Amino acid sequence: MQEQLRQLIELQRLESEFQVLEREKIAIPRKLKELEKDYEQFTGQLTIKKQIFEEGNKEKRVFEQEIRELENQLSRRKRRLLEIKNNREYQACLREVDSIKREIKEKEDQLLELMTNLEALSEEIKSGEKELETRKEEYENKKKELEKKASELEKKLKAFDNKRKKISKKIEPGLLRKFNFIKDKRNGIAVAPVDNGVCQVCHMNIPPQTFIELQKNERMHNCPNCQRFIYWSRFGLESEEAKK
Ligand SMILES: [Zn+2]
Predict the structure, then answer these.
(1) Three-state DSSP class for residue 172
(2) Where does the pLDDT of residue 241 fall: very low under 50, low under 70, confident under 90, or very high at 90 and above?
(3) Quick one: fold of 20-170?
(4) Domain boundaries in the chain?
(5) CB within 8 Å of 14: residues ≥ 6 apart
(6) Per residue in 127-154, pLDDT tens?
(7) pTM, whole model, 2 decimals?
(8) pLDDT score, position 239
(9) Which of 5, 51, 208, 226 is placed for a possible disulfide with 202 were both Cys, Cβ 3.0 to 4.6 Å?
(10) Ligand 1: distance of its center to the CA of 181 in Å?
(11) Which helix (H) or strand (E) holds 232?
């Protein structure tokens, strides 16, 4: 097989692997950001619950104070009842006692409802805090993992780049320029195998005459549709075999 074509195939193979690694590397900062966002969202929700709990406790203290005051009023009225001689005044005071009692009952009911809510909220906060610990650990582990992966990818990319440079040197400058030009214009792929007369990248048929010439493998050919360098897929297999 033509030596230059063999180098182009190898260069393309490296190029494609390089692109996969690079995409992985690019995805890492985004993944980190997502992790961070999830974590922050959870802590934010927990903080809101804690604020609601605080407010609820303040409200509870107000209710308790109000009930104490009403109870004081009630005992004052009850003492007065013992002192009143006038029947009309007595009846009026009795009505006041009843109304204060009703008010106390209402406040107590409200307080009870509030306390039930606060208790449930307190449980939610407790389990939220537990979950937060787990999430924090997970978040930090994943973050470390991703950072490690990023530095590994960086090393791999460097190694690939070195290999790429080495192979590039073996390719005639004009051919290499064309390779890079096609690669940039055609989604990072400049070399395509042809199987059964079909370009395996753009999936168009190549003329039968070209396919025959391709099998003879005497000169470079390009796909008439996508312009990529083409080779008979069987040669590609041979070159894969040769590497093993
Ligand atoms: Zn093509």
Answers:
(1) coil
(2) low
(3) Helix Hairpins (1.10.287)
(4) 20-170, 173-243
(5) 160, 163, 164, 167
(6) 999 999 999 999 999 999 999 999 999 9
(7) 0.68
(8) 54
(9) 226
(10) 15
(11) strand 229-232
